From TrEMBL, chain A:
Keyword match Oxidoreductase: yes
InterPro entries, per database record: 2Fe-2S-bd, 2Fe-2S-bd_dom_sf, 2Fe-2S_ferredoxin-like_sf, 2Fe-2S_ferredoxin-type, 2Fe2S_fd_BS, Aldehyde_Oxdr_Iron-Sulfur, Beta-grasp_dom_sf
Gene3D superfamilies recorded: 3.10.20.30, [2Fe-2S]-binding domain
PANTHER family: OXIDOREDUCTASE WITH IRON-SULFUR SUBUNIT, OXIDOREDUCTASE, IRON-SULPHUR BINDING SUBUNIT-RELATED-RELATED
Protein name: (2Fe-2S)-binding protein
Chain ranges of the 2Fe-2S ferredoxin-type domain: 12-88
Keywords: Iron, Metal-binding, Oxidoreductase
Membrane-crossing segments per the record: none
SUPFAM superfamilies the UniProt entry points to: 2Fe-2S ferredoxin-like, CO dehydrogenase ISP C-domain like
Entry superkingdom: Bacteria
Amino acid sequence: MSANSPQSGEAHPLRLTINGQARSLQVYPWTTLLDLLREQLDLIGTKKGCDHGQCGACTVLRDGKRVNACLTLAVMCDGADLVTIEGLAEGDELHPLQRAFITHDAFQCGYCTPGQICSAVGLAEEGRACTREAIREQMSGNLCRCGAYSNIIAAVEEALPLMRAKANLQGGPRA
Amino acid sequence: MTPFSYHKPASVGEAVGLADVSSRFIAGGTNLVDLMKENVVRPERLIDITGLGLNGIQATANGGVLIGALVSNAELAWASVIEQHYPLLAEAILAGASPQLRNMASTGGNLLQRTRCYYFYDTGTPCNKREPGSGCPARTGLNRIHAILGASDACVATHPSDMCVALAALEAVVHVQGRAGKRQIPFADFHRLPGDAPERDNQLAADELITALELPPPTFEDHYRYLKIRDRASYAFALVSVAAGLNLNGGVIQDARLALGGVAHKPWRDPAVERTLIGQAPTQALFTQAADALLQGAEPLAHNGFKVPLAQRAIVRALSDAALGAKARGATS
């Protein structure tokens, strides 16, 4: 169902932060976070793949944790701090994972890439993947139908220590 | 999705006061939102329980732990008390879903997730679980993923959870609250076999909310194994899974637990089979006997006959791994 489609029912107020910007919105209860981002906020970097939580193309960061936006009701995000693919770069400086994806040519069609990158940012925050094998397992929620997995894993493997170094430099949380 | 109204109560009392057969509680939403998109479930009211503060993991007076219903699957698997003292549970949780889904899905919701039977999801076909009395196309249709134990003429669906298989083995207790008050349900009694009412997955009343899950004092901290067999290496439901826990002393089994996933409408356990292991040395022959006993009465369908020998071998392997011990087999969790 489209977030903008006219429906009977009550819209609810929603306040959240998206990519550092505070927003005040009205949403219908059945609007998913994915539809809100793409159709009301024009943040179309986040992709709709399966729309059933099976492919990971819609992965965004909610309060620092990776989640499937397609299975998240927007109305339940009141007070949340959301980061999408549009919020990762700092001005013209790409996020280390974005740079690594380019270096390793970690895509073919690119449709799954925003979800892959947001998922890998979440993986780095979790701090649980220390081996290539663990990265593979912990990226299993993101499908790539072009099959660019080997380059995706290589990109994530290269970026993890860079993100750790950056976090240490800034005194931020472990990454 | 069919439109619905949304409510966010501030207390458990208020939440259960709002609940009835036309409403659903929502926490992580990972299964419910999907079912609503497919029109399999069409609640008139969603009751958002994420503001109820059921988020903690705390020690109980008898040395166990009480896990709030809203603790996410990821938080639970990575909580130090679970990693150290209930590693069977951590291993089972991490075998399920994807990291994104584990960040969203709640402890209480994991118990309430619905079967992944194709026909249950396909509103163009009959299904006794979705529409009581309409029939079961799975029994004579495509049934590779379906039950081999405890099924009925009305339903051959399986329960999809990994976490619940470990919780069955650990003998967790489910704390619930409804308008009539609170009660505690032993895990073995929580989920139902389908019988002639497959629309009911468990014994909760419409107004009852899971508030917490209680684990008894730690056991099987070294000798445990959650073994999951699936069609791909990650992010797939179990064809067969086994939760095994042993307590060993001087090479003799002092206590044993054995539960199966992917084979029935609920985690499959038989304490009588577990008792046959006690007082014995852990040998392949003993484990084979136990596997045969637990699978006694299996009734495979046209496409899932492979599950019987698969489960048999998985049980022997899980018990053998458990006997070896986590340190010896190099487990990380």
